[in-house]
Amino acid sequence: MTLTMTLTVSGGSMAATVSNVSTEALAVSALAVSTLSVSTVSIESVLSTVSLHSVLSTVASSEASVAATSVLASQT
């Protein structure tokens, strides 16, 4: 997965635009709409939230594929 994040800072607000993301797109869009204070802590917070969501989505999709494989195996 390629995560491309663009941070735009203007007038004390920050917008985050993320591209090349599949399942994470909605959660990241919700983050982008929020107005954040421009500080290192806020930026790190956004990045860590995106990373955490990415990991959770990866785990969830892995579990889904394992479940699908189990179903296929039980049908044969």
What does this 3D model show about the protein?
By secondary structure, the protein is α+β, with helices and mostly antiparallel strands. The protein has one domain. The chain has helices spanning 25-33, 40-75, and strands at residues 4-10, 13-19. It has a two-stranded antiparallel sheet with strand order 1-2. The longest helix is centred in the last third of the chain and has 36 residues, at 40-75.
Question: Which descriptors apply to this entry?
Answer:
single chain, 76 residues, alpha+beta, two-stranded antiparallel sheet, 2 strands, rod-shaped
User: What's the Cα radius of gyration?
Assistant: 17 Å
Largest sheet features: 2 strands, antiparallel
Domains (count): 1
Kindly report the average pLDDT value.
57
State the helicity in percent bands.
55-70%
Number of strands: 2
- Stretches where pLDDT is under 50 for at least 5 consecutive residues are 35-39
The tally of helices reads 2
Tell me the overall shape.
rod-shaped
- In whole angstroms, how far apart are the ends? 32 Å
| Major beta sheet, strand line-up | 1-2
Secondary structure category? alpha+beta
Q: Give helix and strand order, one letter per element, not per position.
A: EEHH
Strand content: 15-25%
